[in-house]
Amino acid sequence: MEKHQELLIALRKVIRAIDLHSKHLNKTSGLTSPQLLIMLELDKASGINSSQVAKNVNLSAATVTNILDRLENKSLISRVRDTQDKRKVGLFLTNDGKALLLSAPQALQEHFINKFSSLAQWEQSQLLSSCLLYTSDAADE
Questions:
Q1: Angular region, 58: left φ>0, alpha ψ -120 to 50, beta rest
Q2: What is the DSSP string of 83-122?
Q3: 138 vs 59, which has greater pLDDT?
Q4: How far apart are CA 118 and CA 37, in angstroms?
Q5: CB–CB of 77/92 below 8 Å?
Q6: pLDDT for 102-115, tens place per residue?
Q7: Local confidence band at 75 (pLDDT 50, 70, 90 cut-offs)
């Protein structure tokens, strides 16, 4: 089997693992992976604004706004307008949101970080440079 075929198979396995994890997450917690990512971000930086969340999780501002709307409708987060500058809105986990995070499965990223960290430094660098090369090509299209 040629190397490009092996790589494509490996990428399909990664995509499949992400899909299976997302289904498991949704089944056990009622959250999608992006919802969990955003809730974890709010847990780390309570009061953060939506544009900073979008930047931190690498999603568009419009996507984050839609996800925040869904999380707010589920009473998992709250938006609090700044009393001094009404243009600023801070995002906070509600008690229900905090409780859900405690019982939610481990984020796929945490599992990935554990596996990635166990690789030698040169392997980590090689993977990163390969991914950056591909993503920079895709951004040019």
A1: left
A2: SS-TT-EEEEE-HHHHHHHHHSPPPHHHHHHHHHHTS-HH
A3: 59
A4: 23
A5: yes
A6: 888 776 667 777 88
A7: very high
44-52: list long-range contacts, CB under 8 Å, 24+ apart.
46/90, 46/91, 46/92, 46/93, 47/80, 47/90, 47/91, 47/92, 48/90, 48/91, 49/88, 49/89, 49/90, 49/91, 50/89, 50/91
Segment 25-54, tens digit of pLDDT? 888 888 888 899 899 999 999 899 999 999
Spatial distance between the Cα atoms of 81 and 91, rounded to a whole number of angstroms: 9
- Contact in structure between 54 and 60 (CB atoms under 8 Å): yes
CA distances from 58 to 27, 65, 68, 125 (A): 24, 13, 15, 21
